[in-house]
Amino acid sequence: MDFFPGQNFSAEDYCEWAPDDIACPLLSDSGSPEYGETRTSDRISALAESAFGIPYLFPWQRLVIANILDAIEAVRAAENKDSDDECYDEDGAHRGRQIILLPTGAGKSLCFQLPALVLDKPTLVIYPLLALMGDQLRRMEENGIRPVLFRGNQNTEERENQYRRLDGRDGQPPANLIIANPEILSVEKILKKIAERGVGHIAVDEAHCVSEWGDSFRPAYLDLKKIIEKLNPPAVTAFTATASPPVLERIAEILFDGRAHIVRGDSDRPNIQYSVIHCFNKPAALIRAVAGNQRPLVVFCSTRGQTERTALLLRETLNDTDIRFYHAGLEKEEKQKIESWFHGHERGILCTTCAWGMGVDKKMSARLFTGIYLPHRKPIFRKQAGADATETGQKPFCSGVKKTGGESKPCLKERNCGQCLLCAMPNQACAEGKYCLTQ
Asked: In this predicted structure, what is the pLDDT of residue 129?
């Protein structure tokens, strides 16, 4: 079921979205006159327009925000009554523990940024990637919000500046948002400082990483439950755009002891036009797709080396220096330089792994998202397709390049043979025997 602005909806409607094999009931509308769904939509919508310039909120955003604020109000009420009965639903799940499954670009960030502006304690937002942390910091600062940023490779002065920002010793009001990654929260001093300040809400962004990375190369994700228990916030929300039923179960298991509420939306992005390019030679198909479409463009690659090779191929073939690569192996300064370059560039082409695309927003929507490999799972493809496809009045394209057979061979034809794509390009790399496009 799809919901759009202005359409009536209820908690029962959302139950139609919940997978049959996951026992995670949904929160109903708040009974609190201050934090109920109707009241919240008015109060928060006005704040969305004044703080972010957003004229309206989607129904699922209002529902998620109402759930967060209602849970916090329930905890306060329980503290006054010296009983926590109001904090739990009939199924035993805490009212402030929910998993939000909405498509990329649906506005999940607003679901924790807007409540953060009205809470008396800061919201801790946990991100998986440095690129995403930097992007969110940039966007918040553009809207006049000065969050705290805790990340690796900060020197003593930078870290002390963040401590002062946290409690308002920098001459400004205390920060209402804290940006961090799972690994940095294992630093005892940082966690102690955050605990002393207190946390009203924890938001785990890109929560599928809890399952997909926590059990392999990011064990810090498995320790988030301990972080939650130590900080003990009234509300904890996990946000993701790509989670299958087993992944949702694993997220609930790691973060919430297996009991959480789910708000789930359709993962399809109707504003994106999809296609698959069948070819014998991927470089040829990629060059043709890039050369024939508007910019800016994003090219997703499966490995770090592939990003570098692809960028080199496109730069040499198209005789264009507005093409760069990005991956997790770059130094901090290199990443920041490339991020700044691409976000301010109207003709840039970025060859990248998922280290860049996850949750990153670019005001000018990229017109083409091409993968020179097709991910083995549909959720990953949908995630890459929607990584930056915002509503800008244009219809973004997402193309996956799939090899159907044949092996690459050196091109032995003469320069300007006219039978391969590279011979029609400014740089005649084909004649130099670099790439063969005449399979």
From this structure: 85
